[in-house]
Design a protein that fits this description.
The complex is a heterodimer. Chain A is an alpha/beta fold. Chain A has one domain: Rossmann fold (3-Layer(aba) Sandwich), CATH 3.40.50. Chain A contains 8 helices and 12 strands. Chain A is globular, with a radius of gyration of 20 Å. Chain B folds into 2 domains: about 210 residues, 3-Layer(aba) Sandwich (Rossmann fold); about 50 residues. Classes of the chains: A alpha/beta, B alpha/beta. At the A-B interface, α2, β11 and α4 of A face β4 and β5 of B.
Amino acid sequence: MGIKLYQEPKLKQPDLVVGWPGIGNIGLVAVDTLRGQIRAEEFGEIEAYDFFYPRRVVIKSDLLVNLEFPSSKFYYQRLENKDLIIFIGEEQPTDGEGMYAQGRKAYQMANLVLDVAEKFECQRVYTSGAAVSLVHHTLKPRVWVAPNRQELIDEIRKYENTILMSELEGRGGQGSITGLNGLLLGVAKKRGFKGFCLMGEIPDYLSGAPFPYPRASKSVLEVMSSMLGVEIDLASLDVMDARVEELIESIYQQFPAEIRERLEQRKLVAQAQPGAITEEDQKWIKEHIDEFFKKGSAGDDRPL
Amino acid sequence: MTDLFRISGQHKLRNPSLVVTWRADAGKLGARVTDYLNKKLGGQYFGEIEPADFSPLGGVTIEDDLVQFPESKFYSCPKNDLVIFKGDPPSHEWFKYLSLILDVAGHYGQVRELYTVGGMVSLGAHTAPRELIAAFNSPELKQALSQYNLARDLDYQTPPGHRPTLNSFLSWIARQRNIPGASLWVPVPFYLVAVEDPNAQKKVLEFLDQRFGLQIDFQDIDEEIRKQNEKIARLRTLSQEVDEYISKLEGNLGLSEEENEKLVKQIEEFLRSKEPGL
């Protein structure tokens, strides 16, 4: 059980970009888009059977032919300015509950990913995820950035549309990143890698939605491409965003008028204050949003 | 390396004394004491406890803009035969974790004495002198330290609804192993708990300096104390409210909850600001 490399490409001080599923799959979609855009080549994997429960069995003529597990794969590409290793985990190893990894398995997975980073002498580690915020879905999501070293803070200020935790009112520089997209950065810190987590804003009322939020993935990828010095065509995310936007709008119109009115006020400010919608509103959205999404997506087989 | 801890390098320790501090401590007392001792005594990293069995590892926290990760590190100061530990409290498996502290510290030689360091929240003013309070796990050590300037005759029981501290738990485990130990406590004024209290740091450091004959020059920490006192004094001239609250505390009068909160907020904001000339 461990790492299986199919080849050992020669890479010059690459950076490592990592994506696991999370809220709105913001990070995963961003990293997978990056992988597709730069045509990164698969070169290894973390063997899955000790981390995951299988997700599909294939039986033919009474014979068990195959058992499929969620994949955890490494890709690489040599680019003009920067060599990259990309790691994409289809699932986080959990104890069967929830979507986020924790405990010994999570730590083991993070260390295996970083073993590969160490082997190829990676310089920096990038993870990404969601920042659940009191924002409106029509606004361009900002990217909250958390570095794992003090000396990286000034660098972050150079990139457009980014924000540090201390610049968010009422947070006092504090926060948390759930699951492996956060844990990997902590373990990276312990092992001496510099790293960042880029978190795209998603409105609180969409954080439980069972579909991606590509608008935030696009913001994350814009910042990531600047940091990496890599040009990326974001058209595919625009297409995905247009489809999701249509779905969100149809659901949003079903919110009671008074809640919608309060949410509309968020369009006027970058970050609403807590209380911009009432606790009752929040409760109502939480209770009804799933059924809206079910209604909205019923019979909708568009690949989002 | 095992799954639970790792040790690296060779370190010439005979029967070291162990100083245990915690990163999450009132007035950053533990972390600052360790950092100061390491700087002054040339402490070198020699091992750590792995977090997987002791922390939830369900993600990370962000503090002051930076990603944090649990740490449990050991430093050696061979010249002074001293081991210093700085850690984040475990969230479970406390006995196993605390026992490991003694195991790893004793890797190069049986631990001779244990000293844990902790800040406790005080409702007093920062202008009051800091006391060093000690709780011993052996009458012999209590007797041996009788000439030190420690607060005496401590009677205490954990109040209902509370639990003993990790330092007490560790001291108890040490006693099972016949390691004499003392839990050292310094009261930190409540409005300095989230910032720093160099005065409290110095109180602990002075004791350790005396106990281990470290011959530390405290000029730099004295300068920090002076600067902090000046800064608070300056705030008192700028804010009548702050001056009134601190004056009340200096007169042994209590503040209301609202006044407490206001004082904490103003002091923290002012001490974190970069006021020119201070």
